[in-house]
Amino acid sequence: MGVSWDYFTERFPVKVRSIEGSAGMEALNHHLEKDIRESGQGALSAAQCYRTHWKMHKSYDSFALLNNAVLDFATKFPLATHTDEKGTPKEIPLKVLESWGLIYKKGDSTDTHTHWPALWSYCYCVKACEKCVPLEFPTFDYWRAKEDGSVSHKAGQIILWPAWITHKVSEQKCDHDRIVVSGNIYTDL
Length: 189
What we know:
Layout: H1 6-9, E1 15-18, H2 25-39, E2 47-48, E3 50-51, H3 56-59, H4 61-74, E4 94-104, E5 109-113, E6 120-127, E7 135-136, E8 150-151, E9 157-162, E10 167-169, E11 178-187
Antiparallel strand pairs: 1-9, 2-5, 3-4, 4-11, 5-10, 6-9, 6-11, 7-8, 7-10
């Protein structure tokens, strides 16, 4: 008989932030798409689509710039607090250890998975339309934005969630590419 840990693994926040309309978003997305397409295919994973290597931020300034914005966003939502011996709150430094690009063509998908042992995971939309397949959190039973536990993507949108939350991308139905950047954030202690 197994123990259910759903209250531990699934009842944590999913945060969404849009940088849509910011001065550099279109230029950043242009560079991200170019870098993703030119980097070459990485090894297969849960993603059944074109996926780059895991360390794009080490090779491409566009990824490093995006990761700075994501880290700034993530620091606003600490998953826990930490204090020194005197009880003074301490900020926990964060770092991106993995970031990669994905291109979903019609028929592509990503199987259900998590990103444990990372602290946070993120997905940033470079290119998609309102009919493109959303990012799904299939075990959420209380999702506020939609009844089905999904978040539709639009260009310039960051989705941030605790890395142990189960997620997937169902089959892309649109005829055009859905392009995203994903990554994992860890503590930098």
